[in-house]
Specification:
The protein is an alpha+beta fold. The chain is built from 3 helices and 10 strands; from the N terminus they run βαββββββαβββα.
Length: 198
């Protein structure tokens, strides 16, 4: 029998509520109508790999490193991808990024799966239709939003040298990183938890 790993990291604002979500699901034996879960076996351990809630347009993926285990394994149970309502946030254990994607297509029902689960690489270069914008928290010194240091205060529209689409018209050129983190934290607490704790 594999031991269960839990998302115990506190590196990001939404880490605590993501752990609570997993533990509340476990109390209900991971069986709640309208919530799909998927586990990942990892050496001697298992962890909740994905949570999908179709009627909320929620996709949560766990797998971020949050420490070490025995036998040379990493504890990879922290949340790493958070998809909510036409937005996708990726965070990393080394604090690089984060990466943030917003949906800008015109057929969400058709594009949802590709947006949440597909690659976000070279869409403009590859001639793919314009369905998402990419934002990066990288601290490039040539960015107009560069603040110095390690904390990425802004998520800036990143065209990757023209390989991704640029923001147009009234589409945001940047987001404040902390505001996006708070939005995700609040949504998980106010919309996802109540689906579990009924």
């Amino acid at each position: 029998m594999a031991d269960m790993l839990y998302p115990t990291s506190r590196a990001y604002l939404f880490d605590e509520v993501s752990e609570r979500i997993v533990r509340e699901l476990e109390k209900r034996d991971f069986h709640i109508k309208g919530i799909n879960v998927e586990f990942h076996q990892y050496g001697y351990w298992k962890y909740l790999n994905k949570i999908i809630i179709p009627d909320l347009d929620v996709y949560l993926k766990f797998g971020r490193i949050q420490g070490r285990l025995t036998h040379g394994y990493n504890n990879t149970a922290a949340i790493e991808e958070l998809g909510i309502k036409k937005k996708l946030l990726l965070v990393f254990s080394d604090y690089s990024g984060p990466l943030f994607y917003t949906y800008v297509g015109n057929n969400w029902e058709k594009d949802r799966n590709l947006f949440f689960y597909g690659l976000h690489t070279n869409s403009k270069l590859n001639g793919e239709k314009r369905t998402y914008l990419s934002y990066s928290g990288s601290q490039r010194s040539d960015s107009p939003y560069y603040t110095g240091g390690n904390f990425k205060s802004y998520l800036v529209n990143d065209t990757d040298g023209g390989r991704e689409y640029a923001a147009e018209n009234d589409e945001p050129r940047f987001y404040q990183t902390l505001e996006i983190f708070r939005e995700y934290q609040q949504f998980l607490h106010d919309a996802v938890l109540p689906k579990i704790i009924v």
